[in-house]
Amino acid sequence: xxxxxxxxxxxxxxxxxxxxxxxxxxxxxxxxxxxxxxxxxxxxxxxxxxxxxxxxxxxxxxxxxxxxxxxxxxxxxxxxxxxxxxxxxxxxxxxxxxxxxxxxxxxxxxxxxxxxxxxxxxxxxxxxxxxxxxxxxxxxxxxxxxxxx
Length: 149
Hints:
InterPro entries: AsnC-type_HTH_dom, Dimeric_a/b-barrel, Tscrpt_reg_AsnC-like, Tscrpt_reg_AsnC/Lrp_C, Tscrpt_reg_HTH_AsnC-type_CS, WH-like_DNA-bd_sf, WH_DNA-bd_sf. This is Lrp/AsnC family transcriptional regulator. Keywords: DNA-binding, Transcription, Transcription regulation. Residues 1-62 form the HTH asnC-type domain. It is built from five helices and four strands; from the N terminus they run αααβαββαβ. The chain has helices spanning 3-14, 20-27, 31-43, 77-84, 111-122; strands at residues 63-71, 90-95, 102-108, 127-134. The chain has a four-stranded antiparallel beta sheet with strand order 2-3-1-4. A hairpin with a 6-residue loop joins β2 (90-95) and β3 (102-108). 16% of the residues are buried.
């Protein structure tokens, strides 16, 4: 990946609806050259796709929490993932270092919905205990962006 690829990615992160022509003008390439580079970045897995960024609060899912999950015994990340998949409130989960086996990001419609989701999470057979932190406000959230040289 070179500087032009990084600049193309930066443009796509800023506005994924930009046309190849618009991106080309910004980075000094023709639209077909930009398309070839984007296709290559997709093939290489650098770009994983294009998506709409939705405000969860606008959809009624404005309550969120981060939950430390502590499992009984040694549990593989794949097994944890498999047990979390059926819970629709789990929007992300991470294996981590430290005392917890995983950190789970939950989203819910309100505090009652969050409590219900936490109870269903705690009921998962391999989970020993959880430690929850409810989000009060989002201070910063930014998409990953390549260094532009």
